[in-house]
Specification:
This protein is of the alpha+beta class and 180 residues long. The protein contains six helices and nine strands, in the order αβααββββαββββαα. The chain has a four-stranded mixed beta sheet with strand order 6-7-9-8, covered by helices on one side. A three-stranded antiparallel beta sheet has the order 1-3-2. The longest helix has 11 residues, at 29-39.
């Protein structure tokens, strides 16, 4: 069995691979990757990141964004947030966004992966799950980046009202709103 055949045997449709992952199964990884891309068995989605396309009856299906980001980072400690989620807070945001924000511990900047732009922001710690409180703090931190009218988005608490979109946000350890 040739080394290229051995590499083909390890590829799984819909999976995303880094070049170093493919090097485990190949003695000439660059040449083999070039051949597999030419055959259509691999697609280059970013520098050093490749995807084995999954065929459906409608054509090739893209990999899940979470898998793309995890392979791109080489780490599973990240939180992907769409600014569209701000609309669900009930604060008056109405815009639709096409650029997901990825909070992580390794990369910072805008990167194109599989034709889509991701905004990577490096943080010293990243929460495992998105909660309403985290989303609210993220909204306040990114208020200057949003095309919304700030005065329409910022909460205006009224006396005796405790059932608005911020009612569930309890101030506790690790939950602080910074001014400015």
């Amino acid at each position: 069995m040739s080394a290229l055949s051995d590499l083909k045997r390890h590829l799984r449709p819909g999976q995303v691979y880094r070049r170093k992952d493919l090097a485990r199964w190949s003695n000439a990884v660059d040449r083999h990757v070039r051949q597999l891309v030419g055959e259509g068995r691999l697609e280059k989605v970013s520098a050093g990141v490749y995807m084995a396309p999954r065929q459906t009856r409608f054509g090739a299906a893209p990999a899940k964004p979470e898998r793309l980001v995890e392979t791109f980072l080489g780490d599973d400690r990240f939180l992907m947030v769409s600014p569209n989620a701000f609309n669900g807070l009930g604060v008056g945001t109405t815009q639709l966004y096409s650029k997901p924000v990825v909070y992580n511990r390794k990369r910072h900047g805008k990167f194109t992966i599989d034709g889509r732009i991701y905004d990577f922001r490096m943080r010293p710690s990243v929460p495992k799950r998105l909660s309403k409180e985290i989303l609210l703090v993220d909204l306040l931190h990114n208020l200057d980046r949003l095309p919304e009218d700030k005065s329409a988005v910022l909460p205006r608490p009224r006396a005796g009202e405790g059932n608005g979109p911020f009612a569930s946000c309890q101030g506790g350890p690790g939950f602080r709103l910074r001014a400015g």
